[in-house]
Amino acid sequence: MSNALRVLSVNVAEARPLDVGENRRVQSAIGKRGVSGAVAVGRLGLAGDEQADPTVHGGLDKAIYAYPSEHYAFWQTVRAQARVAPWDEALPHGFMGENLTLAGLREGQLWIGDVLRFPHCVLAVAAPRQPCYKFNAVMGFNQASKLMLQSGYCGVYLAVREPGTIAAGETGELQPGPREVGIPELFRAVMGRHRRD
């Protein structure tokens, strides 16, 4: 297996109340935290993980959310600029709401249908993430979703091709799919459509 793609953290959360505005709370499982050891990977996601709103998260095509660790420095900087966090506050893995914090794989390298082959499971790139008001609430400022759109730092949803287990420290291999629809292009198209609606 290639060392280019590495799992830094496997993150899960149960749904719980999240403050999203003045006197407004909603259920959310965006607050993921890293777990140790091998985690079971089923067709609908990781053992111990929940989705609060199955209309936009979860299901066969959005079973697992993966995010590149390389973008964490960007979000740490913009949160400090927005004065919602100190400059030296490192964000913990899972902060973006991702199940898998990955190193060595960014959105520009991914296309719908690409396969991520790990030692004990196989995942397939299914869709870019579409940020919402819950993302703004977790990040601590209302322009976070807009910055995700501008930067293209969206991460990807993965479908489970072969269930099994996954653990922090494992390496994986990217196997190209049909290479017809790229993640950055699809993300811009989908988000542009939502902004017009």
UniProtKB/TrEMBL annotation:
The molecular function terms in GO held by this entry are: catalytic activity; molybdenum ion binding; pyridoxal phosphate binding
Superkingdom in the source lineage: Bacteria
The protein's matches in Pfam families, at most eight in alphabetical order, are given as: MOSC
Domain named MOSC is located at 33-175
Q: Which InterPro entries match?
A: Benzoxazolinone_Detox_Enz, MoCF_Sase_C, Pyrv_Knase-like_insert_dom_sf
Q: What is this protein called?
A: MOSC domain-containing protein
**Which species?**
Methylibium petroleiphilum (strain ATCC BAA-1232 / LMG 22953 / PM1)
